[in-house]
């Protein structure tokens, strides 16, 4: 995959996560789960980091959110118990160079 294609796929992953987060906020938990899974699967291809963004913690956080969404769909937890969408962290290697 070319560098340009790689970046395009990375941004597609982020878009899936954004759409999933939007669905989650609006109570569409089935749509949220679908989009979050797609985004997380795509994002995992860029671990451990891409464009100076630490990917592994982001993937782990969204996997936890997906589990929470599944628990909401099953009636085990309330929607307000879903974890917050994580912030992206920049790589520390660029901070100290």
Query: What's the rounded overall pLDDT mean?
Result: 89
* Strand elements, count: 2
Q: Based on Cα principal axes, name the global outline.
A: elongated
Proportion of residues in helical segments: 55-70%
Structure write-up:
The radius of gyration is 14 Å and the shape is elongated. It has one domain. It is mainly alpha-helical. It has three helices and two strands. It has a two-stranded antiparallel ribbon with strand order 1-2. Helix content is 60%, strand content 4%. A hairpin with a 2-residue loop joins strand 1 and strand 2. Helix 1 packs antiparallel against helix 2 and helix 2 packs antiparallel against helix 3.
Brief summary:
60% of the residues lie in helices and 4% in strands.
Note the topology.
Blueprint: H1 3-25, H2 29-44, E1 49-50, E2 53-54, H3 55-73
Antiparallel strand pairs: 1-2
Which features would summarize this protein structure in a list?
97 residues; mainly alpha; two-stranded antiparallel sheet; 3 helices; 2 strands
């Amino acid at each position: 995959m070319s560098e340009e294609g790689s970046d395009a796929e990375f941004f597609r992953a982020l878009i899936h996560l954004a759409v999933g987060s939007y669905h989650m906020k609006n109570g569409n938990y089935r749509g949220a789960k679908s989009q979050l899974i797609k985004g997380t699967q795509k994002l995992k291809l860029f671990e451990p980091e891409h464009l100076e963004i630490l990917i592994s913690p982001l993937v782990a956080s969204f996997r936890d959110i997906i589990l929470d969404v599944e628990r909401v769909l099953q009636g085990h937890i309330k929607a307000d118990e879903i974890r917050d969408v994580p912030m992206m962290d920049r790589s520390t290697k660029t901070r100290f160079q």
